[in-house]
Amino acid sequence: MKKKNEEKSKTTVSPKDVQRDILDYINTCNRPVSIAEISINFKNEISKTILQKCLNSLVENNEIAFKLYNKTNIYVKIQSGVEVGNEEISKIENKIANLKESNASLKDQLKNLNSEISKINRLPDNITLENEISSLTKEVTKNSKKIESLKKGGVISKEDMVKVCKEHTRLKTLLKKRKDIFKNILDSILEGTGAKKSAFVEELGLSDV
Question: Which sequence ranges form a coiled-coil region, renumbered to this chain (predicted)?
C-alpha cells in the first residue's frame, strides 16, 4: 500500500517543479549534460517524456542552451551576464572547425619544412662543396686542354681517346650536379635570411654559381 502511495505522489509532481529542479541541477553541474544524466539524477522517478518537455520549455525560455551532438541533445547552463544562444554556439563551433582545419594545414607545412631541412642537413656543407667544385673545375679545364692538344696533332690511341672523353664527360656531369646542390643550398639560405645572392657569396668569399 505504501508503494502505491509513493507511485501516486510521483505522478503528482508539477511540471513547473520539475523544470525548477532540472534548472537547479544543470546550473549546479555547470557542465554539459544529457537527458540520460538528468534522468539518473532524479533516480528515474520522472519519465523521459516529461523531462524532455521540461527541457524544451527551459530552452524556449532561454534559461538553458542545447546543442545536438552525435544525435543526442546536450544541455548547458547559460552563463550569467553572457547570452549564449544556439546560433552563437553554432558560430563558435564553426570557428573551432576552421581553426582545426588551419591547424592541420600548418602541421602539414611544418612537416614539409622539417623534411626539407632534414634533406639540407644531409648535404655537404658549403665549404666542402665549394672546394669540390673548384677541384672539379680545374680537372675539367685540364682535361679540356689535353683533349684540344691531342686533337691538334698529338698522338693518342683510339682507346685512350674514348677513355679520356668518357672521363671528361663524367667530370662535367659531376661538376654540374655539385653546382646544382650548391645552388639549392644557397637559395634555401637566402630565402630564410632575405639577403641578396651577390652580396652573400661575396661576404663568404665564394664563387657565384
Answer: 82-123
- The whole-angstrom separation of Cα 198 and Cα 189 is 13
* Domain span holding position 114: 93-133
Torsion on CA atoms 84, 85, 89, 91, rounded to nearest 10: -110
Q: Determine contact, residues 152/103, Cβ cutoff 8 Å.
A: no
Q: What is this structure's pTM?
A: 0.35
Q: Is 129 part of a structural domain of the chain?
A: yes
Residue type, 6: E
Sign of CA dihedral 194, 196, 200, 206: positive
Answer yes or no: are the C-beta atoms of 34 and 75 closer than 8 Å: yes
Q: Does 150 reside within a domain?
A: no
Q: Assign residue 65 the CATH number of its domain.
A: 1.10.10.10
What residues pair up with 74 in beta bridges, in sequence order? 34, 67
Same domain, 70 and 102: no
Quick one: DSSP state of residue 84? -
Distance CA 39, CA 25 (A): 11
Q: What is the C-alpha separation between 183 and 193, in angstroms, rounded?
A: 15
Predicted confidence (pLDDT) per residue in 136-183, tens digit? 888 888 888 877 776 666 666 777 778 878 888 888 888 888 788 878
Inter-CA distances, 64 with 22, 39, 67, 73, 94, Å? 10, 17, 11, 12, 21
